[in-house]
Amino acid sequence: MAEQVQGGDDLAPRILAGERRALARAVTLVESTRADHRTQATALIEALRGHGRQALRIGLSGTPGVGKSTFIEAFGMALVGAGLKVAVLAVDPSSARSGGSILGDKTRMELLSREAAAFIRPSPSATHLGGIARRTREAVALCEAAGFDVVLIETVGVGQSETMVAEICDLFVLLLAPAGGDELQGVKRGIMEMADLILVNKADGDLKPAATRTVADYAGALRLLRKRPQDPEGFPKALPVSAVTGDGIAQAWDEMQTLARWRKDQGWWDRRRAEQAAHWFDQEVRAGLLARLRGDPAVKSAMAAMAAQVAAGEMTPDAAAAEMLDRLKG
Predict the structure, then answer these.
(1) Alpha-carbon span 317 to 319, nearest angstrom
(2) Partners of residue 175 on adjacent β-strands
């Protein structure tokens, strides 16, 4: 059963104290679209600002069937075993019609969900651009305030979601399955360019040789990409892992820590977080303006009329948009 959404007046100190129930209530609050809940959520996030806690935010994407949930559980259990607190924000696909969500990730991570040092929160993407829930970044901020050391943000892996999660995380990890050379071309260059680490899962049993070849293929492809200023020598890189046997998971974590430390030492970490904050300010202003326009009956009526003209071929979309914007200026 979902946590009941309640006011956030008493939540801030309880979240800072690490209370899981308060954290769950707060995430429910920030996910709500009710106007009064949005006001409370904004006040709560503001109250938690400046707590000084930072988690390592790791975005994780991969195609369906690659074993993301299995990997996250194995990786999360390894981190918990190392004495770290881990939060998993798994954004599931929502139905565009009904808004329903599968929300199966929590049931697929049975071991991790029982750990006191782990917090797993599946969230419907609510049809927002790219499948990333609009309030995921606020949920990340809540987890940081609650004292979690690592926040894993799993995307639905449908193209633009990777771009969205890149504006939330510190490291972006792409999880892939063993594949032939031809399948290498199926991974979009843009996603390859965003990845800080490529992990080829299922590197065990009969698939181990194929996984080794796939790692070599991707390592070669990464060397052809233009070197990014935010990377030390040798990054981004490809590594084999097995969520079943645990092989390669410790090395993957070491590489993530190495990259995070280098970026902090070189000033890239703080610079990137500042850029992300500015990005989300811009997005909130845009979303707020659109919401106000859609809530104005006169504007809504005018847009509906113009949309009908565009649909009937009486106006081009560009001309209609320009006329609409001119009306708004007046």
Answers:
(1) 6
(2) 62, 199
Instruction: Give the model confidence (pLDDT) of 226-269 as tens digits.
Output: 889 999 999 999 999 999 999 999 999 999 999 999 999 999 99
- Whole-angstrom Cα distance, residue 173 to residue 32? 29
Give yes or no for a contact between 179 and 210, defined as CB atoms under 8 angstroms apart. Answer: yes
Q: What is the pTM of this model?
A: 0.85
Name the CA dihedral angle for 66, 87, 257, 201, rounded to a multiple of 10 degrees. Answer: -10
DSSP string, 214-235: HHHHHHHHHHHSPPPTT--TT-
3-state SS, residue 96: coil
Separation CA 198–CA 196 (nearest Å): 7
Candidates 43, 21, 41; CA nearest to 30 is 41
Q: Name the one residue in this structure whose structure tokens are 């419907």.
A: 124
Strands (E), 127-166: 150-154
- Nearest residue to 27 via CA among 39, 35, 15: 15
Q: In this structure, what are the phi and psi dihedrals at residue 124, rounded to the nearest 5 degrees? A: -70, 145
Query: What are the strands, taking DSSP E only, across 145-280?
Result: 150-154, 171-176, 197-200, 237-240
Answer for the pair 90, 143: CB distance below 8 angstroms, yes or no: no
d(CA 190, CA 116) in angstroms, rounded, equals 37
174 conformational bin, left if phi > 0, alpha if psi -120 to 50, beta if neither: beta
